UniProtKB/TrEMBL annotation:
Source organism, top-level taxon: Eukaryota
Annotated ranges, domain Cyclin C-terminal: 3-102
InterPro entries: Cyclin-like_dom, Cyclin-like_sf, Cyclin_C-dom
Protein name listed in UniProt: Cyclin C-terminal domain-containing protein
UniProt cross-references to SMART domains, sorted A to Z: CYCLIN (SM00385), Cyclin_C (SM01332)
Presence of the UniProt keyword Lyase in the record: no
GO biological process: cell division; response to gamma radiation
One protein family per Pfam: Cyclin_C
Keywords: Cell cycle, Cell division, Cyclin
SUPFAM superfamilies listed in its UniProt record: Cyclin-like
Similarity-based family: Belongs to the cyclin family. Cyclin AB subfamily.
Length: 108
């Protein structure tokens, strides 16, 4: 599996235990996870027209959800619920939990 896919799965699994994420439909969560993962991996804003066409979501539609994902990512290693972080820290899952959160998304 690609790093993008694994980081996207990591983002989604972090959301599973967060009550406030229930307000988002699954397709938006999936698109936001891919967007957030791209930002974390590439360290830049990246949501192309192709991404928009395939997901049917614009960056503006994803940004609120994506910012929450970044916050969950920042807190993933600490607190009471660290299972997802431990899982994605394993070699089997590409150690993607070690990818630096896309902090810059929180500012824009």
């Amino acid at each position: 599996e690609s790093q993008l896919q694994l980081v996207s799965f990591f983002m989604l699994e972090l959301c599973l235990v967060e009550y406030q994420m229930l307000k988002y439909c699954p397709s938006l969560l999936a698109a936001a996870a891919v967007y957030t993962a791209q930002c974390a991996i590439n360290r830049c804003w990246q949501w192309t027209k192709i991404c928009e066409t395939h997901s049917r979501y614009t960056r503006d539609q994803l940004i609120e959800c994506s910012k929450m994902m970044v916050q969950f990512h920042q807190k993933a290693a600490g607190g009471k619920l660290t299972g997802v972080h431990r899982k994605y820290s394993a070699f089997k899952f590409g150690c993607v939990a070690k990818v630096e959160p896309a902090h810059f998304l929180l500012g824009g």
